[in-house]
Amino acid sequence: MSNATTTAPVTTATPAGTTAETGARTPEAAGIITDARQRIDDLDGRIIGLVQERMAVSAVIQRERLTSGGRRVNLSREMEILAHYSDQLGKPGTALAMTLLELSRGQI
Predict the structure, then answer these.
(1) Beta carbons within 8 Å of 64's beta carbon, 6+ residues apart
(2) How many other C-beta atoms can be found within 10 angstroms of the C-beta atom of residue 24?
(3) What are the counts of helices (DSSP H) followed by strands (DSSP E) for the chain?
(4) What pLDDT score does 19 carry?
(5) Which CA distances in Å does 12 have to 9, 43, 62?
(6) Are 85 and 96 in contact (CB under 8 A)?
(7) For 50-77, b where at least 16 C-beta lie within 10 A, e where not — what string?
(8) How would you label 85-107 residue by residue, b for 16+ Cβ within 10 Å and e otherwise?
(9) Nearest by Cα to 15 from 27, 32, 33
(10) Residue 14 gets which letter from DSSP?
(11) 12: pLDDT confidence band, cut at 50, 70 and 90?
(12) What digits encode the pLDDT tens for the residues 39-82?
């Protein structure tokens, strides 16, 4: 029987939000980044919910317009939406509005 003791390699669990996961160089910055990312995830969830709500409202409008003998799409209204997003968010706003319109009415 040997008196030598063997030790297992020491491994430490890396806590969530470490500098390796966030790209931060300090634990304080990693904590701030982790908290901010959680807030972004929460905001993204709300944004997705709002987009889904917008899609449902748009479907009601399209259904009523078609039922009354109108066209599925009102291009002048879409131009107003594009202008509004562009005014508020610049060129990327136009792209965002186009995506929202496509989600809400499908491609024409």
Answers:
(1) none
(2) 17
(3) 4, 0
(4) 79
(5) 10, 33, 58
(6) yes
(7) eeeeeeeebeeebeeeeeeeeeeeeeee
(8) bbeeeeeebbeebeebbeebbee
(9) 27
(10) P
(11) very low
(12) 999 999 999 999 999 999 999 999 999 999 999 899 999 999 99
Q: What is the largest CA-CA distance in the chain?
A: 95
What angle is formed at CA 51 by the lines to CA 44 and CA 62, rounded to 5 degrees?
Answer: 175
From CA 97, how far away is CA 105, in angstroms rounded?
12
Query: For residue 53, which amino acid is it?
Result: E
Tally of residues, the chain:
108
d(CA 76, CA 82): 10
Rounded to 10°, the helix 91-105/27-67 angle is 50
